[in-house]
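Hi everyone,

Forwarding the result from last night's run.
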Amino acid sequence: MSTDIELSANVIAERAPGFKPAVGMVLGSGLGPFAETIQDPIAISYADLPGFPKPGVAGHAGQLVLGAVGGTAVAVMQGREHFYETGKADAMKTPVRTLHDIGCETLVVTNAAGSTVEAAGPGSVMMITDHIAFTGQSPLFGEEGNDRFVDLSQAYDPAHQTALRDIAKANEVSMAEGTYMWFCGPHFETPAEIRMSQIMGASAVGMSTLPEGILSRHVGMRVAALSIITNLAAGMSDVKLSHEQTMTMAAKAANDVQVLLTGFLENYGNG
């Protein structure tokens, strides 16, 4: 019996014969419009891809877009399933493994996050260099064999980090760097939790990204990740936290993220 991964890969092969992407991407809240820059796009609804999510969050279109950006073949996911939607840390297993199955060597993950560092305020961009899985969950629960013991000492590819730094410098994009802490959500964090995250060394907090990154490393894909900072975390300002604010601030930083992603894809393969 065919798995959802095989079935989804077959659907993609039927819709885009001979297409082999080098880079997969997951676009977070408010970043879906990046898909509009894809050349010769072929859009496939998640509803047509067995095992792909049914996004229940505003700002997630729920489709896979195939094409090219900057000369690099890409498979771009407009939307993800979050742990808080189903309570399943491995909710993104089929999409990530399908991207790997059709040829992706790298996964670029984006998200909207709250900053625990005042210098990196709303509307800025942060490159993730490390993470803390505060949920106590893993998308690899239930996996078998020794390869489930994944080395995450370089979870975010050093060469990809260097490439993004160079692109940011060349394009005068202010890009912070730091550690991302994964909270389960859907509620926002408390001020006490934010103080704890600061003590533990986190620069940003959010409700996604780590599952996709860990799943990618499990199958040998390289990972790069960017956070749009949409707010100062709980207790750091008087602004009331909301998803509407997340969407508004994500739109303000979308251009910088597009510059970074486009430059990354234009130079992909050089590092």
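The chain is about 30% helix and 25% strand.

Cheers,
N.
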